[in-house]
Specification:
Residues 276-296 are annotated as: Disordered. The chain is an alpha/beta fold and 296 residues long. The protein is 31% helix and 19% strand. The chain has helices spanning 35-49, 62-75, 89-102, 109-119, 142-147, 194-202, 217-221, 236-244, 278-287, and strands at 4-7, 25-26, 52-55, 80-83, 124-129, 155-160, 164-167, 182-187, 207-212, 226-232, 248-250, 257-259. Helix 6 (194-202) links the parallel strand 8 and strand 9 (207-212).
């Protein structure tokens, strides 16, 4: 069976991008259900799929994050990856869907889990806000805070890949991707066409779709009066080429194939190869003791 891609809420499971996109596993109310029930569900997922990649927002309640770590610890399993990239909720949902697309291909679990850390660099995620007074996830200057108290002010904020903030004026612009993308838009309690009529054309998006606003978005952005947006690579063939073109290696701890410098399943990092061998350390210790003898 393909590797399971799990999310912690139903609105993180976006509609399929294409006919090959696998469905997401939704861990509903994982922090509210009895521990034994959640543990049985996770064990069944691992037994059925072999490996599970859980994509979780950093805006998720602390109880959700704690429960996920508890389950992984109780199972003592290196086949569960907890992936929490620093993306706004809509961008995270897009990334989870890209992993669901790739899960249908001949990509090993370790490489698939590592792919998330690669693909995040190709996602541009932000929002149009009516206020930045409670925005604490993107650097905001005092001048912008002061302007946010002016009635009618709106701000374009890019959270990823490079934080940017502009006050909306006829000349306002945000730096976009230098490659072809689609855009996903989720409208909250804010009335504006700036994202669809101004930003999207300036980014030369090749397609645009609207979806409901993720439930965690108001908490992430500090206001419910927003329009969240995200541009991304929709084509499975492009995603596959990006992932498979990167050199892969074997994790020195669990042995699984990975790309990058850290195994997402066991969290091991490559050993430091320039460290002195153990024998050299022993010899140095012996030389440093009185009489050149090893401490005994």
């Amino acid at each position: 069976m393909p590797t399971a891609i799990a999310v912690t809420s139903a609105d993180m499971a976006l509609p399929p991008q294409d006919e090959r996109t696998l469905p997401a596993v939704v861990l509903r109310d994982i922090d509210r259900r009895p521990l034994e029930q959640a543990l049985a569900e996770m064990q069944a997922l691992v037994e059925h799929h072999g490996h599970v990649i859980v994509v979780c927002s950093q805006a998720a309640p602390t109880a959700v994050q704690r429960r996920l770590h508890t389950l992984r610890s109780l199972m003592e399993s290196d086949r569960i990856a907890l992936f929490r990239p620093d993306l706004p909720p809509l961008g995270l949902a897009v990334l989870a869907r890209q992993l669901r697309q790739l899960a249908s291909c001949d990509i090993s679990p370790g490489v698939l889990a590592s792919a998330g850390r690669l693909l995040v660099h190709y996602i541009h995620a932000g929002a149009l806000l009516n206020s930045v007074t409670r925005l604490d996830r993107v650097p905001v200057g005092l001048k912008s805070h002061a302007k946010s108290w002016v009635p009618g002010s709106q701000f374009g904020v890019l959270a990823h890949p490079e934080p940017q903030l502009v006050r909306i004026t006829p000349e306002a612009a945000l730096p976009g991707p230098e490659f072809g993308t689609w855009m996903l838009v989720a409208k909250g309690q804010l009335q504006s066409d700036w994202v669809t009529a101004t930003l999207a054309p300036s980014w030369k998006v090749q397609g645009l779709r609207e979806i409901p606003l993720p439930s965690e978005s108001p908490g992430w952005w500090g206001t419910g009066k927003l329009i969240e947006f995200c541009s991304y690579l929709p084509d499975l063939s492009v995603l596959y080429q990006l992932v498979t073109s990167v050199r892969r290696s074997s994790c020195h701890w669990c042995g699984i194939d990975v790309i990058g410098d850290r195994c997402v399943f066991c969290s091991a990092t490559p050993p430091v190869h320039d460290s002195p061998p153990l024998r050299q350390l022993e010899n140095r210790t012996a030389v440093g003791t009185p009489g050149g003898r090893r401490p005994g």
